[in-house]
Task: inverse folding
């Protein structure tokens, strides 16, 4: 049968190091650790660790269900095996009292819903499930209160009394190891005394006897009884609350959907109302957006005039009768006068282009400064008000509210979610003004210079806009990740952090393969949306974008050429009308780039306003309540 060996002694003297050496987390620089006569260096690490079960002072529970946490001890275990291990660890009763039973979620974001004693018993069940030959208990009850220690210790006593496995115990409270077969007192890295409890207590001036006497001073046996009574009362109360909660369930899915829609609309109106103090800044920013939007149709004039300059025709000229028939275009007396006139025209047009470029520089410089300064200032003021209210609400909440929320979730509400509120106010104003300025001016210019062409262009404008948008998305890319707040749970990043942060537990449980599989599964879940049909649809969209753009350009060039030949328009009219309209579409794409996803913004607004509106059950900032004098 198995035996129990307990190590006791002052802190920092090497007790926990023994456990880590036995677990083969480290290897000794001198001497060796043997298992059944074989040096651990000679044994297969995974096989050896499967022979050992570890329960530490602060066990780790992974972010999944209780059943899955226990099952990490033996991945191929059945539900019956899990229940049997839980019963052996005195955990079955409290697990079944949870509404979801063994399917209750625990881990980094929800482990505070269970007590330390419950968490410890789950860890013991996990260790027992693998049916280890050696059980290591590293101060398994030292972090627990008296009541929890009593329950956990009862489970450990049953395990040690069964004599089915070798148990090595690091003890903080000496009362928990009196029944051990051997007790070793460790001090300054060496074993000072070894023996049974009776043998060590028989030594008048023994180290263990002195330590035992120090710990039993002022012991009160009535405290456990009082706590037990309190526990029974508390559990009954929780049971009544669960029944009341079950009785209150039940609105229809339709009502929930309608309520959610109404709430989202209310949140949008509320988000817009936060910007009412910033309307003067929005007005100033809109003026900047108009100037910025004029850049794109203005470039149409520049392109048109530059093409006219570069392709200025110069007709054949001959003013020398001896060289043939005299032919001087434009009614000039000499060819030199004709050439000087053409050169002057090109110079004047070039100067006009320069003035246009200076005007565009002015619009780009001044417009961008005004637009981004005004809208940026307004956005940050809104963000500050939202974050101030959010943080104020956070510090009002009772401690129990934080027990069921991860730190990342709370900080995200304070930063990312609050920053999205501007998507209901400043962002749509900026986008709308830039679009109107760019596309509007482009259309008006096109109508002024060649109205028939503008009508045709107006008909194909929606298709061209779609093509420009798709091309823009292809160039800058799009976020294909899961942006929901639930994405963090089970994501590949979470698996990596959780695994590396708890590497000792992973190594002790031989969970390397399972964690790799969990990481692969998380990656698969992330990319499964990029299936063949989805990619085919995206491919068709890109193809249609190119189709609309190329055939749209082709139609505009064809119809513009026809108008030049049959309606008496000049080349300048066509070029200005064409390029002003084409480049205004670039302005449309620029205005739409960077827009926040509206559904994501709605969800963020809902989370922010839910937090701001939540009434704390224990509000430390409230003035209500009696103040004693």
Result:
């Amino acid at each position: 049968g198995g035996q129990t060996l307990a190590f006791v002694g002052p802190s920092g003297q090497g007790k926990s190091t023994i456990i880590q050496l036995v677990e083969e987390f480290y290897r000794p620089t001198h001497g060796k650790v043997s298992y059944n006569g074989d040096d651990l260096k000679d044994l297969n690490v995974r096989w050896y660790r499967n022979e050992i079960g570890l329960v530490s002072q602060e066990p780790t529970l992974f972010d999944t269900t209780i059943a899955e946490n226990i099952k990490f001890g033996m991945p191929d275990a059945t539900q019956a095996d899990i229940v049997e291990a839980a019963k052996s660890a005195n955990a079955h009763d409290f697990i079944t009292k949870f509404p979801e039973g063994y399917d209750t979620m625990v881990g980094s974001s929800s482990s505070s819903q269970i007590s330390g004693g419950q968490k410890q018993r789950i860890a013991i069940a996990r260790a027992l499930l693998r049916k280890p030959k050696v059980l290591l208990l590293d101060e398994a009850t030292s972090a627990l209160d008296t009541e929890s220690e009593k329950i956990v210790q009862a489970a450990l006593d049953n395990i040690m009394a069964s004599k089915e496995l070798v148990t090595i115990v690091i003890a903080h409270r000496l009362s928990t190891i009196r029944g051990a077969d051997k007790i070793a007192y460790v001090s300054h890295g060496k074993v000072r005394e070894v023996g049974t409890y009776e043998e060590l207590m028989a030594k008048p001036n023994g180290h263990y006897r002195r330590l035992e006497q120090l710990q039993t001073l002022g012991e009160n046996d009535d405290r456990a009884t009082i706590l037990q009574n309190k526990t029974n009362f508390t559990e009954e109360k929780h049971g009544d609350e669960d029944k009341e909660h079950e009785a209150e369930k039940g609105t229809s899915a339709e009502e929930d959907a309608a309520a959610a829609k109404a709430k989202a609309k209310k949140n949008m109106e509320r988000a817009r109302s936060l910007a009412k103090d910033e309307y003067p800044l929005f007005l100033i920013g809109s003026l900047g957006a108009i100037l910025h939007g004029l850049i794109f149709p203005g470039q149409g004039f520049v392109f048109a005039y530059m093409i006219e300059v570069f392709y200025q025709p110069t007709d054949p000229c001959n003013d020398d009768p001896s060289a043939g028939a005299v032919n001087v275009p434009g009614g000039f007396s000499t060819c030199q006068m004709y050439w000087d006139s053409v050169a002057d025209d090109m110079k004047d047009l070039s100067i006009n282009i320069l003035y246009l470029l200076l005007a565009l520089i002015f619009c780009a410089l001044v417009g961008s400064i005004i637009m981004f300064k005004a809208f940026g200032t307004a956005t940050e003021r809104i963000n500050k008000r939202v974050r101030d209210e959010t943080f104020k609400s956070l510090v009002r909440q009772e401690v129990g509210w934080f027990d069921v929320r991860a730190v990342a979730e709370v900080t995200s509400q304070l930063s990312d979610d609050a920053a999205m509120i501007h998507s209901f106010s400043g962002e749509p104003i900026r986008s709308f003004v830039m679009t109107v300025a760019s596309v509007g001016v482009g259309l008006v210019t096109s109508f002024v210079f060649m109205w028939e062409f503008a009508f045709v262009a107006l008909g194909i404008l929606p298709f061209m806009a779609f093509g420009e948008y798709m091309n823009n998305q292809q160039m800058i890319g799009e976020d294909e990740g899961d942006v929901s707040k639930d994405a963090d749970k089970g994501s590949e990043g979470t698996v990596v952090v959780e695994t590396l942060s708890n590497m000792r537990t992973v190594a002790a449980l031989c969970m390397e393969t399972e964690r790799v599989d969990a990481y692969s599964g998380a990656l698969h879940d992330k990319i499964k949306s990029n299936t063949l049909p989805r990619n085919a649809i995206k491919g068709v969209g890109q193809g249609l974008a190119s189709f609309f753009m190329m055939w749209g350009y082709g139609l505009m060039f064809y119809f513009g050429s026809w108008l030049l030949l049959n309606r008496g328009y000049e080349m300048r009219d066509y070029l200005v009308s064409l390029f002003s309209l084409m480049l205004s579409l670039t302005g449309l794409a620029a205005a739409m780039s960077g827009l926040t996803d509206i559904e994501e913004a709605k969800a963020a607004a809902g989370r922010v306003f839910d937090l701001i509106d939540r009434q704390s059950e224990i509000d430390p900032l409230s003035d209500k309540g009696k103040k004693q004098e």
In short: The beta strands are 4-8, 34-35, 38-39, 52-55, 64-65, 105-106, 134-138, 166-170, 182-187, 190-195. DSSP finds 23 helices and ten strands in the chain.
